[in-house]
Amino acid sequence: MAKEELPNEGSVTDTLGWIHVKRDSSRLAVPYLEEAISLHKTSNPGEPANAEMLYHLAKALSNTGEAVRAKETLNEA
Question: Cβ neighbours of residue 20 under 8 Å, at least 6 residues apart?
Fold first, then answer.
């Protein structure tokens, strides 16, 4: 419901993605987490990327076997 009410809020989208990670549904999480990072960058131009969101994405990528992307994302965090 929160995502429907606040579709452009990166923190809401990140939370939804992280719930998928915690429920062992990382493949479903990755698009949400990528979107969350994009929303954060759009709404906070000039600020560094959100490290927590990047960590969440790295964890999801690692869980899906995308080790190289996970490492790159973690390094960015």
Answer: 26, 28, 29, 32, 60
